[in-house]
Amino acid sequence: MSRRSALNLKSKPIRPETSSRPTLLLQWYDRHRRRLPWRAAPGEASDPYRVWLSEIMLQQTTVKAVGPYFEKFVARWPDVTALGRASLDDVLRMWAGLGYYSRARNLHACAVAVAREHGGVFPDTEEGLRALPGIGPYTAAAIAAIAFDRRTMPVDGNIERVVSRLFAVEDELPQAKPLIQQLAATLLADSRAGDSAQALMDLGASICTPKKPACSLCPLNEDCTARAQGSQETFPRKAPKKSGTLRRGAAFVITRGDELLVRSRPEKGLLGGMTEVPGSDWLAGQEDAAAKQQAPELKGLSRWQRKVGVVTHVFTHFPLELVVYTAQVEARTRAPAGMRWVPIASLADEALPNVMRKVIAHALDV
C-alpha cells in the first residue's frame, strides 16, 4: 500500500471485515494471551510501575532476557518510590548484563522524579508521561494504554510488522513509521485500548513472526494484503543498514593476588557510570602499539603479557575489537588515582557491561 492510498482510507467506506478487526483481535487475545510477569491477569488492573519498568527493560531487548531482570528488580524495589530511593550505583549493578545502560540511568532518574514530583504516582496521560526522564513517544503511549486504558496505540517492532503486512505498506522503515502509526490506530477497539495494543504485540511475537509466520492461525488472515500477495516475509520494507566503522583498543587486566584493578567510566557517554578494567581509547584504525602506550602505571609493573586473540563486541553504532593484556603486581600495590581493587570473587556485584565481562573472562581464562 502506498502512502497516498493508505491516507485515503478515511474517505472510503470501511468494509465489514475491516471494521471487525479490533473485535477479532480481542477475541483471539482472550484465548491466547501470553502470561508475562509484568502483565495483569484478566480482570485485574495493571500496575503502572510494573508496566513502566517492563517497557524500559524491553527496549531493544527480548522478553526472554528481560524476565529474570524484571523479577530481580521488583523483588528488590517493589514500587517506584523504593526504586527512587536507591542509589544509581545499585541500579546499575542490578542492570549489569542487560545492555544499553543509558536506560538504567534514565530509569533511576525517572523513579526519582515520580517519587519527588508526583508523590510516587505516575501521570496518567501521554503528555504527562513524556515529561518524565527516559520516556519517549512509544513508551508514553504504551504506559497510557496498558496502565491507564487511554485510547492510544503504541507501535513496537511486533506491531510494526503486523501492520505493515496487514496493509502491505510499501514505504521503507524508518520513513514508514508515521503511516504505520496511523494504520495501527485503526485496530484500536472502542474500549480495552491496553488489551488491543497487547493483542497486536502478542500476535507479532507468536504468530506474525519475522520468518515463517503462522498465517493459518492468525485471526486477521482473511483480510491481510501481504498474505493475499504471498509476500508476508518481505514486510516490513527496510532500508539497508549502515554498519559503523570498526574501532580498536586495548584492555589491561591487572591482578593483585585475588583482586582485580577496575575503575568507573564517566557518568555521561557510552556505558556511563559502569565498571571497567583500565583500557585505551576506542578508535578507528588504532594500532596495537599506540593502544598499549595508554596502559596504567603501577609500581613494580614492568611486563605485560598479551593474550592470544581479541575480544569482539558490537555496539549499536560500531563494532569493537580489544586486545587484552594481563599483568600481576605485588601485595599492597596501590591503585592509581581513580581506580580501585575489588575481589575477583565479588565481580558479580559490580556494574560490569557485557564487553568487560568478555574481557575479564578472556584474560582470566574463566
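(the above was protein one; protein two follows)
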Amino acid sequence: MFGYRVPAPDEAMLISGGRRGLGGAPFRVVTGHGKFVLPVFRKTRFLTLSMCEAEVTETCVTKQGISLHVRAVIAFKVGNDTESIINAGQRFLSDQDQMSVLTGRIFAGHLRAIIGSMTVEEIVTERQKLAAEVLDTSKMEMAKIGLIVDSLQIQSIDDGDTGYIDAMSAPHKAAIQRQAQIAQAQATQASVEAEQVAARNQAEYARQTAIVKAEYSAEVDRAQAQAAQAGPLAQAHAQQEVLAAQTELAQRAAQLRQQQLVAEVVKPAEAEAERIKVLAIADAERMKIQAEAAASHDRVALDRMLIDQLPLIVKEAAGGLAGANVNVLNGADGLGEIAAGLVAQGLTILDSVRQNLGGQNSEGGAAKTNVPLQLQGYSRTAVDVDGDEPEGSSAN
C-alpha cells in the first residue's frame, strides 16, 4: 500500500517528522511491525540490529614493562530496547560503519589499561580473565552509545623479539619435550614389545599350523594305510570266516560220523556183547541148574544107595558086637536100647556121608569117606561107601 513501510527483522525503522518520540527523541522507533507513513510529511530511516564485528590489534605494555602485541575480536550490536536504538540512531544513523571503528578504539584503550596492570604470565595463562575485565570496564561506555558486546576473544599475544614468552615456556617446553621423549620411548618400547609379541604369536601360530598340518598329514597317511590294508584285511577276515565255517562243518561232520560209528559199530558191538553176556549168564545158569540137578540126582542116588546099604551097615555093626562082652543091665529094655542106638548110629553115618558127598561133588573129587563107628566102648573104624572094610580095621 502506498505509504505503508515495514522494517526487516534485524532492523529498526526510525520515523522522523510529526510528533517526537520517546524521551524527546527526534524520531519514533518501530520494530517488528509495519507503520503507515505519510509521504512528504514523514521520513523513514532504517538502523541495523544485526551482529557487527570489530578487530583490535594493539601493542600493550605489561606490568613488567614488556611490550606485547595483542590481537582481539569484538562481537557487538545495537541493543534491542528503544533507548539503545535511539542512542545508536542519534550517533550512527548517517554512518553506521562508524560503530565498528568506535568500538575498536574503545576496546583498544581498555585493553591497554587492563594489560598494563597484569604480568605476562597472567596474561598468557589467564586470557579469559583478561577478556572479562575488558568487557566489564567497557560496558558502561558501550551502553551510552547504544551498543552491547556479545563476546570478546583474545586471539593472539606476541612479545616480538624479546623472547620472554619463549623463555617462560622453555621449562614447560623442556618438560613437555621430556614427557614427549618418555612417551616416545614408551611408545617405542611398547611398539617393540608389540612387535615381539606379534613375532611370538606369529611363530606360535606357525608352530601350531605346522603341528596341525603334521597331524592332518599323519591322519591322511593313517587313512591311506587303513584304506590300503582294508582289502587284504577284509579278504583275511573273509578267509578266516570261511575257515571257521569249514572247521565248524568238519566238526559237525566228525560228530555225525562219530554218531554213525556209534550207531553202526559201537551200539551193535555193545548189543552183541550184551547178547553174549546174557547168553553166557544163561548158559552158566543152565550149567548151574544142570549141576545142581546132577548133584541132586547123585544125592538122590547116594541116599538111595545108603538106604540100601543101611541094613548092611547095621549088620556090620551088630556083627562087631558078636564077640563083645555086653552086659545088659535092664533086660529086654536094655537090649532094645542097644538096637535103637545102632539104628541111630547108622542114620548119623548116613548124614555125614551126605554132607561129605555134597562138599566133594562141588570139587569133582571121589566120594569116599571114613565114618567112625562107636558103640558103648566098642569101635569099628568105618565102612566105605562101597561097603568094603578098610585095611587095619579092628574092634576093641
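Reviewer note on protein two: The radius of gyration is 87 Å.
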